User: Fold this.
Amino acid sequence: MRIRHAPAVTVTRRGVLVVAVTLPLGGLFQAALAANPAKHVDLDISSDGDLLAFRPDHLSCPAGASVHLTFYHTGKYVSQDHDWVLTRPGAAEAVAQAALEASEKSRWVPGKDPRVLAATPPCAKGQQVSVDFTAPAPGDYPFLCTTPGHGAVMHGVLHVTPG
Amino acid sequence: MLRPVTSIRRLAGALAFCLIVPALAAEPQSPDMVKNGLHILAGIYGDMDRKLTAGQYDRLPHENQEFEEGSGALRDAVAHDPAAFKDKVEAALKESLAAAQKVADESKSHDKSKVSAALASLASSMKALNALFPPALRAEPGTVDPPWVKHQK
Assistant:
């Protein structure tokens, strides 16, 4: 029976040094990650006065960020409610259509639709509403107002950048 | 008898007066507010149009209410303009308000052709309203997006 010997391992000073330095550094990195939770981002957006438009219509945040978004209804004359609804890419038109086609009684509820990632409650003129959500993976995510008929013109894009 | 040169000068002066006076009258004191007011009304018209397309007749009376509210923006916008101009705007606005009311009234019938006709009549009255102002301030019905809004879906 032949016994196979393990190859000899040469332990050099340099090797010892590298291990001695990298092991504690790795531990520190892990600790830093644990102590540094998702970045917090505050986003503000408003209606363009009484017009059916968001101002600004482009927002940005890093992926994984803990986002607190506040929507301000700056209308002065028209008593139309607005909301801010973030959808999956490519779903904005379908969501706007679903809201438009819902009957007056069974009002479409954004939060219950799987195509919706985040949504504020409806907001009356002169008021403000907010929503907290975790920013999704990097990409461009459409947002819109789902008050029936508004989504066709009142929309924008959230750019999620790599964290 | 007048000399030909003097006649031509007088004629040119009268012509210039005729051209300049209406142009000055059409230039409102608060152009940004006028632009905003006209765009609010055009936006609501667009909303009515979308609801008609979707067959959402029950929502049209609410749009009429919004049209009425939105007209306040245009009234405020011309509040400091000369009375004669304000009267013209008010008369045209009343036409549009009556036309918007007609849209709401016809919506109860759920008859698409009747509501479409009422909406077309509203569009005509809004064009007349817009015509009172310089082209740069106008928002014709059917131009749904305010021109400064460029979206990407």
In short: Chain B touches chain A through 27 residues (CB under 8 Å).
